[in-house]
């Protein structure tokens, strides 16, 4: 996202929320990644689906949830045979 004032960021966040999306800043905060990592994921086709709107990237909440589901790993209990 381009550099913006806190007020304009809040306004974009509210508009994105109405579209059931996260702004890039919020997605990066959730994922714990840097802007460069987010850019690399988009270039490599990793991470959730996104919408490019002008210079902004929006992440539909359903796409983020689907991506998180793809990362979910089942716990495997260690049995006596595996010890």
Question: Which descriptors would you attach to this protein?
Answer:
4 helices; about 15% strand; about 80 residues; alpha+beta; three-stranded antiparallel beta sheet
Structure write-up:
It is a single chain. By secondary structure, this protein is α+β, with helices and mostly antiparallel strands. It contains 4 helices and 3 strands, in the order H-E-H-H-E-E-H. A 3-stranded antiparallel β-sheet has the order 1-3-2.
Quick overview:
The protein is an alpha+beta fold.
SSE diagram, text form:
Elements: H1 6-18, E1 21-23, H2 24-31, H3 35-44, E2 51-53, E3 56-60, H4 61-71
Antiparallel strand pairs: 1-3, 2-3
**Beta fraction of the residues?**
5-15%
- What spatial order of strands do you see in the largest sheet? 1-3-2
Rounded Rg = 17 Å
Beginning-to-end CA distance, first to last residue: 49 Å
Low-confidence stretches: none
Helix content: 40-55%
The secondary structure category is: alpha+beta
State the major sheet: 3 strands, antiparallel
Tell me how many strands there are.
Answer: 3
Question: How does the overall form come out from the CA principal axes?
Answer: elongated
């Amino acid at each position: 996202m381009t550099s913006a004032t806190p007020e304009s960021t809040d306004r974009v966040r509210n508009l994105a929320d109405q579209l059931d999306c996260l702004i890039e800043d919020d997605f990066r905060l959730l994922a714990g990644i840097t802007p460069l990592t987010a850019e690399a994921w988009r270039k490599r086709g990793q991470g959730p689906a996104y919408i490019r709107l002008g210079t902004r990237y929006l992440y539909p909440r359903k796409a983020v949830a689907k991506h998180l589901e793809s990362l979910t790993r089942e716990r495997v209990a260690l049995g006596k045979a595996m010890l």
